[in-house]
Design goal:
By secondary structure, the protein is α+β, with helices and mostly antiparallel strands. It has a five-stranded mixed β-sheet, sandwiched between helices. It contains four helices and five strands; from the N terminus they run E-H-H-E-E-E-H-E-H.
Length: about 140
């Protein structure tokens, strides 16, 4: 594991880092103005947890976690929306540090469960999430407009 990794809440000045990470994660260019508005809205929502992992010189990765009360769980459930570790820092424990912070948040807020979805084209992520303690328990269906 890398030494001197700090985990902190994402702040407004992290916009460019998060934007670049999401572009790489999704492999597409996103409308920066719209992205910026959504970013500001999401990091200011107290039901969300946005974290960045960094060392002394650079950002290593980040995670976004949204919570909501769901009827079918009779309580608060969290979902990891985005989870990104820069390629050169993968396999070094950075992701586990971010997940551990999400788990702590979930415990402090008495969440019923934590969910994460991964695109079918990211086959390697299934093993990563299972290694982090997640169970492959659902199918997700999507309609794009």
């Amino acid at each position: 594991m890398e030494s001197n990794i700090k985990i902190r809440k994402v702040e407004k000045q992290d916009l460019d880092f998060v934007y670049q990470a999401i572009k790489e994660l999704e492999n597409e260019i996103l409308d920066f103005e719209v992205f910026s508005q959504i970013f500001d809205e999401n990091i200011s929502n107290k039901k969300n947890l946005y974290l960045i992992a960094e060392n002394e010189t650079e950002g290593l990765g980040f995670i976004s976690f949204h919570t909501q009360n769901l009827l079918h769980h009779c309580g608060l459930v969290g979902e990891i929306q985005e989870f990104f570790i820069h390629q050169k820092h993968r396999g070094q424990g950075v992701g586990r540090l971010l997940i551990n912070e999400v788990l702590n948040f979930a415990e402090q807020h008495n969440l019923k469960s934590i969910e994460v979805t991964t695109n079918k084209r990211r086959v390697e992520n299934v093993a990563i999430y299972e290694n982090l303690g997640f169970a492959l328990s659902h199918n997700k269906f999507t309609i794009y407009k």
